[in-house]
Structures are given as C-alpha cells and as structure tokens.
C-alpha cells in the first residue's frame, strides 16, 4: 500500500493511523478474551445470547467513547471537564488491563496445549489450568483499579524522613521541611475538598519551610483560579518555595499559536506566585536563622527527552556561598543523576514527577512499581556518596484518575546533623 501526500499531510494522518491500529488491536484482544471466557465458563451455549449482547455492548461503547475523548482531549481547554475525561481513561484501563492479564495466561495455556500431546495430556484440561489463575488475576486487578479510583485517588499519606546532613549549622537542627509535588489541579477542579484536606494536614505538621517541586497544573493557568486563596493558607515561617514541572509549560495541548502558549505559561507563573509561593526560575534564596544560613536553589524543568530541559543549574548556583548547605528543588529526578550527583556541592535534592506510576506495591521496606523501568530513582529517599535525593510520589494524577498501591504523598523531612 502506498500513501501519497505532502509531509504535513502524512504527519497529520499518523495519529489517525496509529489510533486505528490501536482500536483493531483492542478488538482482537476482546475476541481472544471472549474465547477464553467461553472455554472457562461456557456462557451462551444454552442458546441465550444475553451474555454476548452485554459483552459487546460494553466493549463497543467503551471504544467509541474512548475514540471521541481522544479526538477532543488536546483541543479541550476546560479544566472542569478534566476529571470526566480521566474517568473514561480509568474505566478503559480497569476493563482492559485485566483482559490483557487474562489473555497472557490464556496464551500460555494455548502454547502448553500445543505440546501436551507429546506428553499424552488432555490439551483442553491443561488450558483450563492456565485460565483459572488468569481469571482470578484479572478479577483482582479489576477490583484494585476500581478501588484505586474510588478511594486511592485521595487517600493521602504523610511520609516522614530524617535527613542527616554533614556540618549542618546548629540553627537548622530539627528544621522541618514539607515537600509537596504534582498536584495537577485540574483533577480536583470540581473536588476542592481534597486540596482543603491537604492544606489542613500540612499546617498541622507546623513546617518551617514548604517546598513545591512542580506540576501545579496539568496544562492551563485557569486550573489554579479556584485554589489561590486556599493555597495561601499554607503556613511556613521561613517561606514557601516552588519550581515548574513539565506540565506547567502547557506542552500537552494544541495551542493556536506560540504566543498563546507563552501567555499561558506566564500566567501559570503568576498564579503560583499569587498562591503564596516564591517561584524559583534558575535562581536561589538564602535562608538566614540565628546567624546561620542555608541556600534553597530552584531550577526550571530539566528531564531526559522528550521532557523539556529549561533548567540551568549553573545559573541557579551563581552567587551561592561554598560553605552554605544547599537544597535543590528540581522536578525531574533524572536531573539528579545526570547533572547533580557527584558533580555539584548540593546536599539534598527534592524532586517529584514520577507519581510512582500511581500503581505498585509498598509493603514495609519492599517497594516495586512499573516506574522503576523508566526511572532509577522513582520514590522515597536515595543516598549516594554524601548526597541525598528525595522523590515525592505526588498528590494528583494524570492518565489514570486513581492510585493502586502508591498513595498520594505529603513529605515531612526533618534535618539532623550527621
């Protein structure tokens, strides 16, 4: 098959072609899942077609709704509709990830049944031994995703860490820093009670400093409008500091012009400042207390491609004092690996960005998430050669309107001498 047209026409067609193949793949997966369900439970063999009507009605409704949502998402500038769009994405994942897991076990069963005659086993019975755990795994995943959307999305937890720093000045022993990150305010545009709860929990911790490490919004400056007064209620006597994350630049929307995109970014900055934060754009501030000093540095987003690299660490370091303890706010934890660790005299870096993929397992000291396939440092505290990084799991969501095993996070860090 030959596709003729200009480069611009072909580029314009590419998302349509990709999405068409995606829908075809989903339909194939549905057919394969239906085959496994029939083999396991034998629905419809009595001649009653109700099961099939329900199965295909739900499937086609889901795919049509997803198609309409996908076609509008990057053109829809209305924060009040963000939750509804994410809910559609969440229901899609709740339906299809269990099917994917079920089909994976079904495929193993089919492969096993192919070789079963070599061992004189009944292939049909053998296939069923794979389908049963697959069905159980799919059901548990379905329930977990449902609970993640219903409860996990706002089931915020306070994570506490003691940060030991060599030669920490006496005045900063026991200094309490609250770190917040990745609120993505569009997700709570119609549910401000969650942000109210977060503000109350933070103030009850009585922090000395509050640091916000990026992604205040998902795309648009107007997401902040209902929350400026509420965020101003956050209290910290030594100041509230913030940096930008990749979403704050509004890069995930089809703007009519570069000027419109730039104007949105400037208003995002203005709204963060109006919320009571000192926004650090490749600069630093000196925190003085009882004659001692430490420095808070903040850089714009700097991440591995395709994420933007607007951060200028050397600019933020310019004018700092060698003897001062330095704390860096940088949204993307990969920045620590590539530009900070073993390269700069920065005792502590605070990051966010990963959300811990919003799904994983945390039991005691055991932690696992798909996020580790992309980020070496994806949640919690990391110590290497006298330098430390803390990666906050985020307060909000994107892509999936829930949390499965990885709870939204408020971080309380207490500085102590090493």
Give a description of the structure.
It is a single chain. Helix content is 40%, strand content 17%. It has a six-stranded mixed sheet, covered by helices on one side. Strands 6-7-8-9-13-12 form a six-stranded mixed sheet. A two-stranded antiparallel sheet has the order 10-11. The chain has helices spanning 7-41, 50-73, 82-115, 123-150, 193-204, 228-231, 258-274, 313-317, 334-340, and strands spanning 157-165, 176-180, 209-213, 240-243, 278-279, 283-289, 292-298, 325-329, 348-351, 361-363, 366-368, 380-384, 387-391, 409-417. It is built from nine helices and 14 strands. The protein is globular, with a radius of gyration of 25 Å. The mean pLDDT is 92. The longest helix has 35 residues, at 7-41. β12 (380-384) and β13 form a beta hairpin. With 418 residues, the chain is an alpha/beta fold.
Multimeric state of these chains? single chain
| Relative helix content | 25-40%
The value of Rg in angstroms is 25 Å
Name the strands of the widest sheet in spatial order. Answer: 1-14-2-3-4-5
Q: What gross morphology would you assign?
A: globular
End-to-end separation: 67 Å
Uncertain residue segments: none
Helix and strand content put the structural class at alpha/beta
Instruction: Give helix and strand order, one letter per element, not per position.
Output: HHHHEEHEHEHEEEHEHEEEEEE
- Total strand count, please? 14
Strand portion: 15-25%
Largest sheet: 6 strands, mixed
Query: Quick check: average pLDDT?
Result: 92
